[in-house]
From TrEMBL:
Pfam families: Aminotran_1_2. This is Pyridoxal phosphate-dependent transferase. Residues 53-383 form the Aminotransferase class I/classII large domain. PANTHER family: AMINOTRANSFERASE CLASS I_CLASSII DOMAIN-CONTAINING PROTEIN (PTHR43795:SF39), BIFUNCTIONAL ASPARTATE AMINOTRANSFERASE AND GLUTAMATE/ASPARTATE-PREPHENATE AMINOTRANSFERASE-RELATED (PTHR43795). Belongs to the class-I pyridoxal-phosphate-dependent aminotransferase family. The keyword Transferase applies. Keywords: Pyridoxal phosphate, Transferase. It comes from the Eukaryota. GO terms for molecular function: transferase activity.
Length: 403
């Protein structure tokens, strides 16, 4: 959708004299705050209406996460997060703050279920025994890299877990509207439920512990424009504590104007989000069909821009792939995984190894499919050539008549 979005923004872009100054201040323009509150109320279905006063705008979700962690935790404290997780969280938690990511190793079949909370309990107890004081839990929903939404009851359980242990919940919901549903899927994929939609009082949760992060980078495919928002509806102290850092993560006026313009155009916004979801599903189906043709399993996806593929059938077949990848039977799966990633990168295809997401079992890769079809076909062909595979020739039956 990049071409459509860039054409729209180019035609709609208009600056005023005030936009060439600091405008309304360093914490976000009043126009963008108003547009965001209206947008969040329409699409995230909050239990309590989101007001402009609940928002803090900054230059990207990672910048805001970095600053929120600095407010909630001291050096040596911990942030609890289920494994696997997006590796970009590590520097946000650690680099400037000296805070420790506390990973809860969760089997893949337990992820996004109520059973995940048992592993969080275990990881929290283990961290306490090591002398790490955990101050917050990070929930990525829709999940990166598993590319699915958390069921509502699991999101509620996360909130209650935090309340039970006196922790803050940081919900990264940056892929909230990049959700796609396979036609006729049984059971249907989980819809997206925002932390904002939950009734904290009914759950017995202090809403001051709940904070949501959202940005322009994923659903609006504009990570280069650097704009995001923290929503904290019941904790003005957290928002106030971010003020000293505001000059270091201010959103540029042109970006603020572009995002506000897009959010205010209800007709274009509705059509854009719907078409984006349709194209994401088409791209996912195409990639899933290509993987199936080559005998590579993957975890079913219904949200986000990627899927998690299991390349162990390649990595265990040393007789076939050993010479190309320079691997032998003595190498661990993690070593073979790195060899495959290096082999593909040298041939012009970048994939994310699962160990980068802290998976303890080697062989998994996160494959991003949110590219134009012609770009994906180049990637497919390069991987096929690199591994000596037959070339996939898609048929309509492979990816469905709805495409």
């Amino acid at each position: 959708m990049q071409q459509e979005l860039s054409e729209y923004l180019e035609n709609a872009f208009s600056l005023t004299d005030t936009d060439l100054t600091y405008g309304d201040g360093l914490t976000g323009s009043a126009r963008l705050s108003g547009a965001l509150s209206t947008f969040l109320n329409a699409y995230f279905r909050p239990h309590r209406p989101v007001l402009s006063d609940h928002l803090f705008i900054g230059a990207g979700v990672m910048s805001l996460l970095d600053q929120v962690v600095s407010v909630l935790a001291d050096p040596g404290d911990g942030v609890l997060i289920s494994v696997p997780y997006y590796p970009g969280f590590d520097p946000c938690i650690t680099l400037h703050n000296g805070v420790v990511p506390v990973g809860a190793q969760v089997p893949l079949d337990k992820m996004l279920t109520l059973g995940e909370l048992d592993y969080l309990e275990d990881a929290l107890r283990a961290a306490t025994r090591r002398g790490v004081s955990v101050k917050a839990v990070l929930l990525c929903n829709p999940h990166n890299p598993l590319a699915r939404c958390y069921p509502r009851e699991v999101v509620e359980a996360y909130c209650q877990f935090c309340e039970r242990h006196g922790l803050h919940l940081l919900a990264d919901e940056v892929f909230a509207l990049s959700v796609f549903a396979p036609h006729g899927a049984t059971p249907p994929p989980q819809p997206f439920y925002s932390v904002l939609a939950l009734d904290a009082d009914r759950l017995g949760v202090n809403p001051a512990r709940l904070h949501v992060l959202y940005g322009m980078s994923k659903d609006f495919l504009a990570n280069g424009l650097r704009a995001a928002v923290l929503v904290s509806q019941a904790n003005p102290d957290v928002l106030q504590s971010l003020l000293p850092a505001a000059p270091f993560m201010v959103v540029a006026s042109p970006t603020a104007v572009l995002w506000a313009t897009l959010l205010e155009d209800k007709s274009f916004l509705t059509a854009f989000l719907a078409e984006n979801s349709r194209r994401l599903f088409a791209a996912y189906e195409r990639t899933a069909a290509w993987l199936a043709f080559h005998g590579i399993p993957h975890a079913p996806a219904s949200a986000g821009h990627f899927l998690l593929a299991d390349f162990r059938p390649v990595l265990v077949d040393v007789a076939r792939y050993g010479a190309a990848l320079t691997i032998h039977a003595g190498h661990t799966l993690e070593e073979r995984e790195r060899a495959l990633a290096t082999h593909l990168l040298a041939r012009g295809v970048a994939v994310m190894p699962g160990t980068a997401c802290h998976l303890t079992e080697g062989g998994w890769f996160r494959l991003t499919f949110a590219l134009r079809e012609e770009q994906m076909r180049v990637a497919f062909r390069r991987i096929e050539d690199a591994l000596g595979w037959d070339n996939w020739q898609p048929r309509r039956s492979d990816i469905g008549p709805h495409l």
